[in-house]
Queue: 2 jobs
Job 1
Amino acid sequence: MAYYVDRNVKMTWWEKSYLPEIIRGMYITSRHFFLNLFGFIPFLLGQKKERPIFTVYYPEQTVKYPLAYRGRPVLAVNEKGNYNCVACGLCEAACPAYCIDIIPGSNPGKQNELERWPEEFTIDMSICIFCGFCEEACPEEAIFMSDMCEFNMLDRKQMKYNKEQLAVSTEDLKDRIEFTRQMSGKWNYSSSSR
Ligand code: SF4
Ligand code: SF4
C-alpha cells in the first residue's frame, strides 16, 4: 500500500510575510521579560504569596517537557518483555548522523515464536542530533524520542547505548506513542493507489 504526504498547503500573503509569527514571538518574549522584571512588585506589596517568575532553578527544579520534545531515542519494550523492533534497519538507513548500529537476530520457519529481533542495537548518543527521523521511519512503533536529556559522560565510548540501556516499556511511552499517532494523522498520510 502506497502512502503520500500532501505538501500543497496554501498560505495567505499575510502568512507568507512571516509577520504574524514574528509579532507573536516578540509578544511572548516581551511578556516573559516584563513579568520577570516587574513581577516582584505585587510580591513585595504582599498582594501575592509567590513571585511569578519563569526562571527555573535547575537542577533543583525541573520542568515537564512537552510531548513534542525530542530527547534521546529509546526502544519500546512491550508487555511480554519483547522489543517491538524487528531489526528491519529503516531507522539505521534514515539516521543522518549514522549513529545507529543494528545486528539482527532471526528465527525463520518457527511458528508462535519471535521471527526477528535486534540481537544488538546501539545508538551513539555522542553523535545523535535528536532529529527524530528514526522514530518517523519506524514501521513497528519500536523507537521513540523520549523526554530524557540529562546524560553526560567523561568518556565518549560510554555514550554508545546498548539495547538494554535504550529499553523503555510501552506503558511508560504510551503518551508519546499516542502523540506520534496523532502527528501521523496531521501530516495527512492517507492511503492511495498512485
Ligand atoms: S534522533 Fe536522528 S540522529 Fe538520533 S538516532 Fe534518531 S535518526 Fe539518528
Ligand atoms: S527500531 Fe523500527 S525502524 Fe529501527 S530496526 Fe527496529 S523496527 Fe526497524
Job 2
Amino acid sequence: MLNITHFQEKISTLLPKIELRMNEPMSRHTSFRIGGPVEVMAFPKSRDELAEILKVSALLDTKAVILGAGTNILAPDEGMHGLVICLKDCLDGMQRLDQNRIYVAAGVTMTRAAVFAAGLGLSGLEFAHGIPGTVGGGVYMNAGAYGGEICQVCESVDVMSMDGTVCTLTGDQMGFSYRHSILEDTPGIVLGAVFSLAEKTEAEIRAVMQDLMNRRKTSQPLDLPSAGSAFKRPVGGYAAALIDQSGLKGFRVGGAAVSEKHAGFVVNMGGASAADVKTLLKQVSDKVFENSGIRLEPEVRIW
Ligand SMILES: Cc1cc2nc3c(=O)[nH]c(=O)nc-3n(C[C@H](O)[C@H](O)[C@H](O)COP(=O)(O)OP(=O)(O)OC[C@H]3O[C@@H](n4cnc5c(N)ncnc54)[C@H](O)[C@@H]3O)c2cc1C
C-alpha cells in the first residue's frame, strides 16, 4: 500500500480541483527515462490554477520546481520530496498577434510553435523545429541550434513570480546569453512568449525545417533516450570533438554511454540510473580536461 504523506494529504485538500499525481515517477516525464517518484506532481491548466498552486506551496512552505517536457533534466534516482509543477501541454495555445508576431504559451513544444509559424508564412523559428522541449524550457535556457537561438526572435516574455504576480519582460530584460536567461538567477515561471518573425513563403520555411531535421536524424542518436547535448559548448572548442579526440565514444558507466553516433550525447542504453549518468559526465569531463586542458560543464540540468 502507498504511504500517503502529510504533505500529500494537505495539498489534495487545499487544491481539490487541480490535477495532482502522487508518487509520480520522474522517469515518465524525462527524455532520459530516468528519475524516481515525486511526492506531488501538479498539472495546472491555466494561469489561475498555476497561481493557486504557488499560493498553496508557499502556505505549506514548499519550494515548487518547474518541469517542461523534461528534455534537459537529469532527475534523482531516489525521487523528490515536495512539489513539481508540469507545464507541458498544460499552459497551451498559440495565436497570431499581427502581421509578424505570434504569441506561444509555455507548455507548447518548440516544434509545434515552429510548424504554426511556418503555416502562417513566418520565418525565424525554423531552428526550433526538432528541439523536443517546450517554449517555456526553451526561453528559460535560450535554446538554440544550427545558428538560431530563442533570443534572436523573442520580443517579450510573460513571467509569473513565485508569489503569483505576472509581469512582461522584454527580450533585453531577459538577459539572454549562451544557454542562459535571467530566470536561472531570479526565479520566475515562463507563461508564454511573443516571437517577432519575418515573412517568407511557407515552402521556403518548410524546406529549411526539413533540411535541419534531416541533419539531426543523420547526426544524432534519436532512437535512444537522452537529454540532447550533455555538455555546453566550451570556449575554444566543441564538446563532441573534444570527447571524440579523447577516445571516449562508446565509453560506458552502467546503463549510460557516450553515444557512438554523436560524442556530445549521453544515452540511456537501458536501465541507466542518474548515478550512472553523473559518474559518466564527471569521468568524461576529467578525461577531456587531462587531454586538452578544457573543462566541460554539463548542459543538462542536474536536479
Ligand atoms: C534529442 C534531443 C535533442 C535536443 N536538441 C537541442 C538543441 O538542438 N538545442 C537546444 O538548445 N537544446 C536541445 N535539447 C535540449 C532540450 O530540448 C532543450 O534544452 C529545451 O529547451 C528544454 O525544454 P524542456 O521543456 O524540456 O525543459 P525541461 O527539461 O523540462 O526543463 C529544463 C529547465 O527549464 C526550466 N523550465 C522549464 N519550463 C519552464 C518554464 N515554463 N518557466 C521557467 N522555467 C522552466 C526547468 O525548471 C529546468 O530547470 C535536446 C534534447 C534532446 C532530448
